[in-house]
Amino acid sequence: MRATLIHERAIELDAGWLRHHFAAARGVPSAIAGDQGAAAGDPDLTPASVLIPIVLRSAELTVLFTRRTEHLRSHSGQVSFPGGRCEAHDASPEATALRETQEEIGLDRRRIEVLGRLADYRTRTGYRVSPVVALVTPPFELRLDAHEVEEVFEVPFSFLLDPANHQRHSRQFHGREVHYVAMPYRQHYIWGATAAILVNLYRDLLGGR
User: Fold this and answer.
1) Can you give the residue range of the structural domain that contains 165?
2) Based on the structure, what is the number of domains in the chain?
3) pLDDT tens, 63-104?
């Protein structure tokens, strides 16, 4: 159960390495703070959380993603992490991420080991997202919320940690050019906030090498 962090040299990661990394006191690494054009320090941003589920497969570590259904009002059809907006009864961002994961894909909390949290990420759509990093131990069964989730799939962690796969693109958004990160994997197009959060995870892990 390993993954390779690609930089000037290959760094082999496993569950123990990741546990130690997030348990250790570290400085704050450089991070993508938010979507281009997202308001910095806006107090009206809606708090939300996502879970970054690193699956402990026997062959290699993977990351589990969802693809949203096509009929949703926002981000329809896009690849994302399990997650959503914080509710008043949620005790913490971690509680939000676990609750939303249970609601969206039915992943048993007993299979999830929370490791830590990355820097918040601001979106142009008005959210301040707290990414919660966790290990997921197989075997597990999933029950997808058919209203929100079209499918789930896994991507090798090593692929996501290779900067050669961190593509930079631009597009027109409300009459201006905006830049974003994309990590296409087979038929799946991972981009936007999801890809940027993965870049932040890469930078965080690299800072603890």
Assistant:
1) 2-207
2) 1
3) 999 998 876 555 556 899 999 999 999 999 999 999 999 999
Mean pLDDT of 29-33: 75
- CATH code of 41's domain: 3.90.79.10
Res 132: pLDDT: 97
Q: How many Cβ atoms from other residues are within 10 Å of residue 117's Cβ?
A: 18
pLDDT tens by residue, 140-190 = 999 999 998 999 999 999 999 999 999 987 765 656 667 789 999 999 999
Q: Helix/strand/coil (H, E, C) string of the chain?
A: CEEEEECCCEEEEEHHHHHHHHHCCCCCCCCCCECCCCCCCCCCCEEEEEEEEEEECCCCEEEEEEEECCCCCCCCCCEECCEEECCCCCCCHHHHHHHHHHHHHCCCHHHEEEEEECCCEECCCCEEEEEEEEEECCCCCCCCCCCCEEEEEEEEHHHHCCHHHCEEEEEEECCEEEEEEEEEECCEEEEHHHHHHHHHHHHHHHHCC
